[in-house]
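Ticket #4471: complex job returned nothing on first submit. Input attached below:
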Amino acid sequence: MPADIFVQRRNNSLFLFAALGALTVGSIVITKYDVAAGFTSVGKALVWGASNFYPDAHSLTKLPEIAQKLWETILMSVAATTVAAVFAVVLAMIGSRTTRINTLFSVVARGLASVFRNIPLVAWAMILMLAFSQSLLTGYLALFFGSLGFLTRAFIETVDEASIHAVEALTATGASYSSIILQAVLPSSLPQMISWLLFMIDTNIRDATLVGLLTGTGIGFSFDLYYKNFQFHDASLVVIVIVIAIIVIETISNYIRRIIL
Amino acid sequence: MTQVSQLSSSPLLQVSNVVKYYDGAKPALDDVSFSIRKGEFVSVIGPSGAGKSTLLRCINRMIEVSRGEVRFEGISVGELKRKDLKRLRSKIGMIFQHYNLVDRLTVIENVLHGRLGSKSTLAGVMGRYSRDEKRQAMDVIAMLGLGDHVYQRCDRLSGGQKQRVGIGRALVQDPKMILCDEPIASLDPNASRNIMEQLKSFSRQMHITLIVNLHQVEFALKYSDRILGVNRGRLVFDGRPENLSPERIAEIYATESIALREVHRPELRPEARYAS
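Support reply: We reran it on our side without changes. The output follows.
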């Protein structure tokens, strides 16, 4: 009955849309969200932003201070990401189905990565703050743990995808485990790994702002400080500087990606 | 079990009563026995999923057998310790349907990978190859007709060229035997013929034993000294190509439905077989 499959497909789509609709309406009803007010307030927010949230001449005098904080934040993100990447490569080799030494270690490595990845960054920052108080180290470690979890997962998939066949071939030639890793696995996976690393640096610079807000360091703290003192002009300059920095870094990493891939 | 000596009359490879289970239900290999002499060109044919790849991988222990024994040069492969297993593997080349190269590396680098099994771990890790090894690799590459592509990245090569790199990697191992897992299944007829000719010439000139899994019966008939037919894990034919009648072929490829076989395996129809 080949016609049935089409009926089934259509029913599946109808069911999916019905379910999505029910979910949306249900959540609106339960949270008593006023849809109309929600949309009109966007306009109000824009009007408020245009009249208050822009850098003025005075705020520009704060630029050197802001730039210095931004630089600090970028360096912290890069350091946290690159160090995490080194550890992630090791964990990925142990965790990957292609290169694992044995099943137990693989499960442990994957589990560890999963725990690190699934604890939200904010939670990491809060937990670490207890131990290291408000310092750059807290932010650094929060980014480090989050990146370690994410990169391990990404690297495991990269290794499995890029090198499973070459690993089989080199194993069949009698090559040693370490030779296989260095001669086949890394050459096949490195470009993709670097691409993930660049992506992680992008993300971490964004997240570092949030972490800084919590841990009282870097550019996030500057924003928080200006904002809470009603210095909206200065706070808006911070946002603009962050956006520019992220665009620049994204452009650079896109360029690098194009060359290596 | 008889005492196996290193006399030339003794087989290079002896497979005895090999059984392989992936899961409890039914075996992928079911009591397979055969022996192969030095320099033989043996094709293994059979339908997809018959156990051809499993059989090949049991020989160099890429897959562990569930029961039975594989002996290579009189040594029981299943009992080897890690280090000795690596030494054994370094004497057996392997060629794959999907070439299994490191695509981002050059032809010469991929060919030199064949030497890793014979190197110290440190030299292997560092990727240091001796002058002799490099010269040998260059000679092999030239012999395979890839002289113009020595420093080209493998992802720029055609399928036939990639497979020749795969063959080069096996040849620099100085192998006693090469296992070929569907070496031409992804290639067009011309490239297929070229690869089979080259394999044949290595078997003739260097006396390298070849075991080749093949989909195409006509290639098996044309190039091999001997054909093994596998169906549902059992060895159902072992003999010379000229003894492989159309009826025997139909038997090897026997499936539940004759009609299905006619549709999916046109090469099995006698008229198609003799046409090529």
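The first helix of chain B runs from residue 52 to 59. Closing as resolved unless it happens again.
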